[in-house]
Amino acid sequence: MKPNDSELDRLRQGRSELENHYIDELVSGSLSRRDFLRRGSTIGMSVPLLGAILAACGSSSSKSSSGGTSAAAPATKGGTLRVASVTPAAAVNPLTVADAGGLCMLNQTGEFLIFDSNVKLALQPMLALSWTPNKDGSVWTFKLRQGVKFHNGSPMTADDVVYTFKQLADPKNASNALSTFTSVLTPDGVKKVDASTVEFHLEAPNGNFPYLVSSDNYNAIIVPNGTDFAKWQSTFVGTGAFKLGSYTQNVGATFVANPDYWGTKALLNTTSFKFYSSQAPMILALQGNDVDVVAQFVPAGATSLLNSSSYKIIKLNSANHRELSMRNDLPPFNDPRVRQAVAYSLDRAGMVNALLSGDGTVANDYPFGPRFPSTDTTVPQRTQDIAKAKQLLSAAGHPSISATMKTEIYEEVPQLAQVIKADAAKAGININLNIEQQSQYYGKSTFGNSDWLDGEMSLVDYGDRGVPNVFLEAPLTSAGPWNAARFKNPQYDKLVKQYVAALDLQAQKQVAGQIQQLLLNETPIVIPYWIDGLTASTPTVSGLNPTSIAQLYLNTASKSA
Q: I need a surface site. Which of 22, 207, 222, 358 has the fewest CB within 10 A?
């Protein structure tokens, strides 16, 4: 179909220069429908507007991506949904949560300014109705939803939003969100304009900033002004469709429907979470009818679910991955040839088949993958080459090396550690494994107080993000708070600043290719694969809305008899 020029002209009226630039790229074919939705929503174009533009261009906006909310049985009101979730590694404190179990708890009662939807391919309004950048993306203005109440009865206003983000961005608080906000946002940059308007004045232009205050940044639930974060676990006060019933650390939690919810009221009366130390007992609980849902799992050890017609599986494409860091400041990993040798020893395709049953894709040792439209797909994929690995070690003066890898008991990570050890041994690299409970492995998640960040080699899980900014900055920039590799490269830091500042997708792609090649040359980290997000339930459950970052939204969920 040809574009409806008169309708497009009407829709262009009053639009910003950047918005019209994206429309031009869509019309010319330089921007796909999917990328237009992603980029348009990022700069604050509404869903109805995006749909109207697609329709005027002769493109239907009714299609959605694979995965999403679970369908099937007609929605049933009332009842209790029982969920199996991994045990939170520490207290559920919105400032410090860094693990899958903890962040799943956050979103049961807490909400974000924006929701990043795997299904709709676009950022969705949540507690913010709209967001717009200034010309260079250094200031973003958010208009807040009116009529929202916290579970304690107080209205949500700009004061609450400002307080939340000032705390998250304050280095004194050791907030986990500093992985997102370091060099991006300071407390002084969060400003109240009026009761329903907040401005974020950034340290530098940032074309993807709305993702950093969305559900992607799982710590960023909005809490009441003055909240004592250390005591939040006793109340779980938020704005969500459910509010706290009870919480017992290391055991489980219950949540009850919030009658004063601003949006569509929950269908369920209650949700009940049971905590498990690992995936295997979660699967057994589902099979034994002790729970109705397994919040998130990986294929390793789950073939009985994946090969059975007795369960419903929701699959989401994602940027979930595992990241192996090597201490660039310690021998022998201070030589990039040694780090490259580790990377060349790995059989990535074999890992995807054996550990993920094909529900994932091989990765290339940089934080760009299929999830991100800015990825330069022309960069060649690194594959296993044992001869080259041995050659690199020999050239570095290390025909064989020994090192200790620290990692966590989480999903398939222990099995991956064993596979890495076996593959590396073929090249003369002897890896001793230290596999720990998450609480011990993460420690305080700060340098000098964390096996994750201080280990000679460290294998950690990373959850999904809608844009790669956090993956690029937190673990790899010189001042990154998650820089377990101690990688310090001024050229890399410069390129990341350029990438982050770019509002235009084509400009991002140009810089992305340079970043990808630099990281292949230096290899401070190894990323073996990207993992699809999987959630399982019994056939009686419908309306589940999981994300591939281990969040589970249950406001649309129901359970039939």
A: 358
